[in-house]
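Lab notebook, bench 4. The sequencing result for the construct came back, and we need a structural model before the next group meeting so we can plan mutations. Quick request posted to the team channel:

Model the 3D structure of this chain.
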Amino acid sequence: MDIENAIVEFGTQGVLRYREISQRPDNELPEVFLGGFIASHLYDQFHCPVHIERLYLTLAMECGLGVTPELVNELGGLRADLVVYQSELSPAMIELKILDERTSPLLIDNDRLKMKKLACRTRVRPYVGVMICQTSHTLESTIARLQTVLDRPIRTGPPRRSLTGKWEWCFGCASLLDITDQGNG
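Done. Here's the predicted structure in token form:
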């Protein structure tokens, strides 16, 4: 199983599990729960270290970058929701989001821009994992809007009915790696 499929599968399972234990609407899922759930399952799947809330600066140092005042200023306290160390030379950095009525696809694009600050200097492979919710727009049009904003396709799982049955959601993942942006590490 590749990382994108794993994020879609375990993200879907995480949303369903939180819904079960909280008995709250699906989109009230805390990202911290989702990160912990996915991290545990990624470890079981790939048998490699997985870190939660990893500082970008720590990741930069692990990838061989020297810490400079400029780097500290640029990356500061930014944290990756998950980092999967399948390869020490090119770890996967994953940001998790919930795209519902309260969140714009542009906010998710902001995460892409933050990750690019590190990915363009290192061999880090950036991904975004998103719970995509039907809003005042259909689920399909919300997925299409997000793909347009990110300028790339998103791998999605099957649509799921919400706890109330009034709307749908799915979990998606996209690689944000642009080969031309990749650093030399």
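DSSP finds six helices and seven strands in the chain.
Will bring this to the meeting.
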